[in-house]
């Protein structure tokens, strides 16, 4: 085969055969077979009447999963970062002030996106690996009087679940700030109640606790938040993610804006059907039970969790790397010997923690035991002071086996 840049030997490229991994890192998680099957069904046009019905289904199911009645609830065409940028880039106008947290990698990403949108960024400080303190948030709100307040509900870089969410949102609303929540690692995996907790805007990714390939990412906005978007004095700097334009496609008109990622919408529809069939509260409980078994196993093995029990994040378990062990070597060994993916730390915790997911379809008893067995074996072989047998036994007991 000859191309503009030369020739290509197709026989050297061959058929696509990716490795069959067990995905227990920070995402993506294992995809449910029903979701993969949905993606293999025939394409229709993005304005086909049948696809309009599919869009309606997705919106209804997203409302259920977010625990919201927000009319403006959609899957953004793109990864979770696209939903994040749609939220921040539309809610932050040039000259607006956004208050962001410093306690993790994704608070820093919020800050970066707000600056690109023309906003002035101020910070509420908290160490990496700790949640925001409500008093510190209240003080920062009083000092800076921001237009927008953003926080990360489940910080993927540290394994911390933010408690006291209603207290944070109430303080922000006392200063007339719009509240944006990063729920990428919480949606479908830990308790999340958008309306009851007073969250104005929440964005998420499909590839974690929803066990759906990336491509269509959840976003919900309250009426007040959408009013701020539609009353902007200056257009959003992104045409593609301009919610005032997307409103025409996902709203009542269903007018052309872009060609939606049709198979990704099929996928998230089926993933959300699985959530609804299981029941959202039952799904939260499953994640807590299985991640609790994982936590019991790693602690019995002799390892330490990064986050205290008070703000432990079941869907993303941050485990301290034992002294004298290289985290990258462990992750590589797990991939090569066990086809098992976990991840190293990010940012301030790079080299200090393993990040072990327990999400969606990956959150199964056999996977918990597999992680404990493989991790214990690799660490023991590298000379770490661990007891793999005790870890597996504790995990099995916690699972009731």
From TrEMBL:
Transferase listed as a keyword: yes
Essential cofactor(s): pyridoxal 5'-phosphate
GO terms under biological process: glycine biosynthetic process, by transamination of glyoxylate
Domain Aminotransferase class V residue range list: 44-345
Pfam families attached to this UniProt entry: Aminotran_5 (PF00266)
InterPro entries registered for this protein in UniProt: Aminotrans_V_dom, PyrdxlP-dep_Trfase, PyrdxlP-dep_Trfase_major, PyrdxlP-dep_Trfase_small, SP_NH2Trfase/AEP_transaminase
Keywords: Aminotransferase, Pyridoxal phosphate, Transferase
SUPFAM superfamilies: PLP-dependent transferases (SSF53383)
Keyword Endoplasmic reticulum: no
Record family assignment: Belongs to the class-V pyridoxal-phosphate-dependent aminotransferase family.
PANTHER family membership: ALANINE--GLYOXYLATE AMINOTRANSFERASE, AMINOTRANSFERASE CLASS V
Name this polypeptide is given: Alanine--glyoxylate aminotransferase family protein
């Amino acid at each position: 085969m000859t191309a503009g840049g030369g020739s290509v030997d197709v026989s050297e490229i061959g058929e696509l055969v990716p490795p069959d991994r067990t995905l227990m890192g920070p995402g993506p998680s294992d995809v449910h077979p029903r979701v993969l099957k949905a993606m293999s069904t025939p394409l229709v046009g993005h304005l086909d009447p049948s696809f309009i019905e599919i869009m309606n289904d997705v919106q209804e199911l997203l409302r259920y999963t977010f625990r919201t009645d927000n009319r403006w609830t959609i899957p953004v065409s793109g990864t979770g970062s696209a939903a994040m940028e749609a939220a921040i880039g539309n809610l932050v106008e040039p000259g607006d002030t956004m208050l962001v947290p410093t306690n993790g990698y994704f608070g820093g990403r919020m800050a970066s996106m707000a600056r690109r949108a023309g906003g002035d960024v101020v910070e509420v400080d908290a160490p990496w690996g700790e949640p925001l303190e409500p008093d510190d948030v209240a003080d920062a709100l009083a000092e800076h009087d921001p237009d927008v307040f953003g926080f990360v509900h489940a910080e993927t870089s540290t394994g911390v679940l933010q408690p006291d969410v209603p207290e944070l949102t109430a303080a922000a609303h006392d200063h007339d700030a719009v509240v944006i929540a990063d729920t990428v690692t919480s949606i479908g995996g830990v308790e999340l109640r958008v309306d009851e907790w007073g969250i104005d805007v929440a964005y998420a990714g499909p590839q974690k606790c929803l066990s759906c390939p990336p491509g269509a990412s959840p976003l919900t906005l309250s009426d007040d938040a959408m009013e701020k978007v539609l009353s902007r004095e200056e257009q959003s700097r992104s045409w593609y993610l301009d919610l005032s334009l997307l409103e025409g496609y996902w709203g009542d008109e269903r007018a052309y804006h872009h060609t939606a990622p049709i198979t990704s919408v099929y996928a998230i529809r089926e993933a959300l059907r699985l959530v609804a069939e299981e029941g959202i509260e039952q799904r939260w409980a499953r994640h807590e039970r299985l991640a609790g078994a994982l936590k019991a196993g790693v602690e019995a093995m002799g390892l330490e969790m990064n986050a205290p029990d008070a703000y432990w994040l079941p869907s993303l378990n941050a485990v301290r790397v034992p002294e004298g062990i290289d985290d990258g070597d462990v992750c590589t060994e797990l991939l090569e010997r066990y086809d098992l993916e976990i991840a190293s730390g990010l940012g301030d915790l790079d080299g200090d923690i393993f990040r072990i997911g327990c999400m969606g379809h990956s959150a199964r008893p056999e996977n918990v035991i597999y992680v404990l067995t493989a991790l214990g074996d690799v660490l023991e072989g590298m000379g770490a002071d661990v007891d793999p047998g005790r870890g597996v036994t504790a995990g099995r007991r916690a699972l009731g086996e």
